[in-house]
Each structure stands twice: as structure tokens, then as C-alpha cells.
Amino acid sequence: VFTGFAYGGLSELSEDEYTSCTMGSTIAGEIGIFGYRPSVLMDMLAGKRAEVGTKVGAYIRSFSGDCSPSDLETGLQLVYQLFTTKVEPREEEVKIVMQMAEEAIYAQERDPYTAFANRSREINYGNSYFFKPIRISDLKKVNPIRACEYFNSCFKDPSAFTVVVVGNIDPAISIPLILEYLGGIPKVQDTVQPLSREDLKGLPFKFPETIIREVVRSPMVEAQCFVQLGFPVVLKSTMMTEDIHYVGFLSKLLETKIMQVLRFKYGQVSTQLM
């Protein structure tokens, strides 16, 4: 198993280019982030157990993969291809991605829960563009060229990444492969100073200033109720790891208490998700 991460993600984008750039991973994935179309790559990897995936989040971009010890070289070759491939949009693949995105949006709009979830995010985060659902009108504004440029920039400079490799591997075999394929990724000419955690731009959101209680109604075949209780939490970077665990413990405690009241006092059937 291996993974690599670098600071700097979607929070660094402006509102104008956010929608296009968020589509970058999807468009690039359809074209082929390793220099080959997904169907062609699947045939090339037949009989091998090696795969690599990417993720571009709010603050971090990363790649991760797993492989059998005998296919470590193949896994590292995929990482090399990821950093050396320049994905360029092609009309056919872009059209497929946009059609899939439209179908997904239409499916979500038919789901009664979508209206509830969208309104909840709108209240919790102050109608921030980062948390808004993508609409059909937004898809028409997507710039495929900018989308691919952004994806390429996310996995361009290897010096910005911290990489960890673990598993049942022989150092005598693995180290030369790591030096060859990870160390052999060409140096970027126009490299910039990698971001640190303190340099990251915060997400644009605003917690509610007062208690808000709102009911969202949506037509359903069978009556069903969803309830969300939101408690704004601000985490400080110096104690973030510990605070995340504390918040998790408090959430589980609250979940247990709510379950006890609903089940044993009111005899209601319900499911809690924290």
C-alpha cells in the first residue's frame, strides 16, 4: 500500500473557476490520467494486481494505491505516469462526462432527500459556493480546458508530495524501484514553494449566528422524516487532532442518548447517523 499527499486543494480556487476545476478529476478520469484510456489501461493491467487512484479535496490532493508485492513495479509505474501525463480534453470524452453529470443531477432532483440535504448545507455554511450543489446551469459554464489544466497542476510537482509505502516488501528490491520511478519523475521547471498547513486558504463559509429551526417539506410515496441537529465547531490547528477525537466521542455520546430516548421512552424506530 502506498499513498502520497500535498497541501493545497479546492479551497485555493476562486468562485469563478471553482465549478470547472471540480470537474477536472472526472473529465481527466474519463480521458485517462495515466496516458491511456481506461479501457486500454485495463487490458494492459490484465493479470496484475495494481491500481492507483487520486483525490483532490478542500485542502489536500493525494494519490493512493495498492498492489501485490510482485506488482510493486507496476504500481510505481502508474504513479510515474500520473505525474508525467498531460491530460488534454477531447470532445468525445467531455460530452460523455457532461451527459453523466446531467443524469446524476436529474436523479438527485427526483430524490426527496436532496431538497432537505441542500437546504441543510445552505443553512450550516452560509450559502457558500463551496457547499452548493452543481446545477444544470452550472454545467454549461464548465471550461474543459481549464478543468484539465487544474488536474494536471495538482499532480505535476513531485517535490510537494510526502509519500509513504508500507507492506510485505523487500527493501533490497523496493528501494531501487522507488528511486527509479518516483525519484525519476522529471523536475518541474516553473515549480513554486510547496504550501504548508499554515499557508492554506480557509473555506468560504459562515456558521449561523443564531439558533435556526426550519422544516423542509417534500412529496413522498411513503411518509418519512429526517432530522438534522447541527452544532458549529471551530478547530484550532494546534489541537486539531485531539479536538477531532473529542468531537467524535461527544457525537457518539449524543447518538446513544438520542437512541435511548426514542427507543425506550417513545418506542420509535429510528436510525442515527453522526
TrEMBL record:
Lineage top rank: taxon: Eukaryota
SUPFAM superfamilies assigned: LuxS/MPP-like metallohydrolase
GO MF term set: metal ion binding
Segments forming domain Peptidase M16 C-terminal: 149-269
Gene3D superfamilies: Metalloenzyme, LuxS/M16 peptidase-like
Pfam families found in the cross-reference section: Peptidase_M16_C
InterPro entries, A to Z: Metalloenz_LuxS/M16, Peptidase_M16_C
The protein's name in its UniProt record: Peptidase M16 C-terminal domain-containing protein
